[in-house]
């Protein structure tokens, strides 16, 4: 193993150098060599504790997001069964893409496989223990939930207005701030949101001549929804994210192409909002 080979190499070269020094300087050099070998051994014995501490620190740095994902990705189906498949995938994704690279960057990469189950257990424990806002804060009624999300956006400084129930073309809220127009579809679900919502808000983005588009939900999102959102540059948000949402133009390969004059489309969108 790389870690054991490195330890053996350090012990060998320290012993070799110390032996040569002891041959010249005698007892003091021999004592110093023994102290160095003892420190190397103690450092090796402390390695598991350092690794566990790094794992915990890495996970705790993302505790709020993990706790939210855990809430979003777990639900009870129509038969009373708790479904946590999405959370299991999210937990493994985080471990593979965040925790293991952190270990590798500190020279502990070879420990990852042996610690895999421990890492997943630690993620679960920290995510479960992190406090989250009361889930009942968000209203269950769809229209009330849209108004709830609208208020969250207003608290963040957006000029947000719900669209008309009919003719919204996939948008429940249109918000503007800092020259950025945000198109939002709200989904108050008891299970993860599918990719149909992503398709609808992607179409609404063009209809409303928006700069950004998002699906906001109290629940999580299916793998298909996440994949489509990544390809079309649609944001998938929890309603708790809205209070801290800042205006910025969408970037990336899926960004909707800019249209030179926005005249007619923008004017039509404003007229619908005015009617509201």
UniProtKB/TrEMBL annotation:
The reply to whether Protein transport figures as a keyword in the UniProt entry is no
UniProt cross-references to SUPFAM superfamilies, sorted A to Z: Restriction endonuclease-like (SSF52980)
Q: Which UniProt keywords apply?
A: Endonuclease, Hydrolase, Membrane, Nuclease, Transmembrane, Transmembrane helix
Task: Work out whether the entry's keyword set contains Membrane.
Answer: yes
Stretches with biased composition (Basic and acidic residues): 265-276
Offer an example of a GO molecular function term for this protein. Answer: endonuclease activity
Q: Can you give the residue ranges of the Restriction endonuclease type IV Mrr domain?
A: 143-245
Q: Which Pfam families match?
A: Mrr_cat
Where in this chain does the entry annotate a coiled-coil region?
Answer: none
Sequence intervals crossing the membrane: 20-42
Q: Where is this region: Disordered?
A: 248-276
Q: Can you name this protein?
A: Restriction endonuclease
Specify the taxonomic lineage: Bacteria, Pseudomonadati, Pseudomonadota, Alphaproteobacteria, Hyphomicrobiales
